[in-house]
Amino acid sequence: MNKFTRPTIGITTFTQNEEGHYHITGTYVEIIRRHGGLPILLPPDEPEECEAILQIVDGLIFTGGGDLDPVTYNAKMHPTISGVNPQRDAFELKLAKLALSTDTPILGICRGIAVMNVATGGSLVTHIPDEFGSGVKHTGEPSESVQHQVQIEPHSRLASILGATDVTVVSLHHQAVRTVPPLWRIAAQAKDGVIEALEHKYHPWAFALQWHPELAADDIIQQRIFQALVEAARAKSASICA
User: Fold this and answer.
1) Residue 20, Cβ density class (10 Å: 0-12 exposed, 13-18 middle, ≥19 buried)
2) Catalytic status, residue 241
3) Is the pTM for the entire model greater than 0.70?
4) Is the peptide bond before 142 cis (omega within 30 degrees of 0)?
5) Which of 92, 199, 214, 231 is an active site residue?
6) Which of 66, 71, 88, 221 is the most buried (most CB within 10 A)?
7) Res. 1 pLDDT band, cuts 50 70 90
8) 199 annotated active-site
9) pLDDT of 71 higher than 60
10) Is pLDDT above 70 for 237?
């Protein structure tokens, strides 16, 4: 039973850097607090404790970060792949698999969509320009965010949450979903065909976005996804306490 008065939202982090610091973009924490959630940071050190983590949190965010090791989806290394961390991969892939077998609300962002897709048997495009060209810019140089349009599927649950079907998003990625496992449906795409969002067909609340809504903290439409996550987590917590 959750003993906290606010719904707890677990937020994945990077592993320790050279200074020994765990870190994550602060806007994740600020936005969850803004919408009434209690953020809990989850450093990727203890994959054996994933079940215990799911007993504590009411919701989860799989955050952005480095690329997944291509071995996790049976692909070859590409010169543009960077930031690979097997420790974080192992922790997040296990946590995602377990979480998707529960009713815990889950949101994946950028790397998070890759984690949730690969955890359920999907694969990735290792470098978007190689297959989709440069008609839509998905990342700046060097590693700067850009903006582009995304079309949300009109009858998707995501469209209902956002209240929009054509949105401008903040983008910072060079990889994307390739194969979509049967458990998921495509909820959004960019104009070049790159998959920009997935929603789970059977889980009560599981969405994965390729873009970065946490980098659009003043965009009312983008913030609705975090509000909906916290509300879903609150409902889960209330049902456990009832």
Assistant:
1) exposed
2) no
3) yes
4) yes
5) 214
6) 88
7) very low
8) no
9) yes
10) yes
